[in-house]
Amino acid sequence: MRYVRFIFEGKKHLGAREGDKIRILGDASLESLLAQGADLETHASGKTGGQLVSEQDVTFLPVLERPTKIFCIGLNYADHTKESKYEQPTYPTIFPRYHTSLVGHGQPIVRPKVSDSLDYEGEMAVVLKKGGRHIAKADALDCVGGYALFNDGSVREYQFLTPQWTVGKNFDATGGFGPELVTPSEVPPGGRGLQLETRLNGKVVQSANTETMIFDVPTLISVISDAISLEPGDVIVTGTPSGIGWAREPKLLMHAGDVCEVSLTGFAPLRNPIVDEGAQGQG
Question: Which ranges carry the Fumarylacetoacetase-like C-terminal domain (predicted)?
């Protein structure tokens, strides 16, 4: 099952993809359904009464409106760690993102007026349907409600002002999230073996297989739960491979007029134009 959130005729809706159309399911958010214990594998089945609309007629929203928590994982691909000139950590590098930084598919990622160092990071995200503490790796995939694409847009100048990366990772409207939540039945266990790519203006700038993540999805869920209570609607953004613009010479950063696209095998791509803060048409 593939779920999307969008605006149609001025109202927010939850929908399910049916071929090249979207069936409106109602106005509930995915996180509210997850909190109620809904089974997303079957929730949309049989709901044939909702209006079918064309993707071209909707404005996509982030797949979750207000995720309970967003955990981002840094340095989870060895080639990216090397290009970033860090030692490879033996424990996951975890930092938060906040819902105010999120934008949907097709909506602009905003380059802030205070910096010109906006960089791309294509990633796979995991959305939890249940949580808890001290989750065993063997049980971790039972907690997964679905997978989505993420562009962890990073304002590098601010990211590296301090040893903590949080500010540079949380400028408003810098994190693309979507366009769809794909349930586990349509994805290999833990999202392994999928080709992850980022394109800037049509040119491939990142390409890696999720098989090469240092810490896989079960490990991330288990390790985080040792310290923090996980909940339905939590998101884990699993890290980016090499090829970031900041590590290139000369640097390849995003500017107004650019288009950045993240793709993953079997998923609809996540595509966002870049605009300057305050520009007409900014989301």
Answer: 69-275
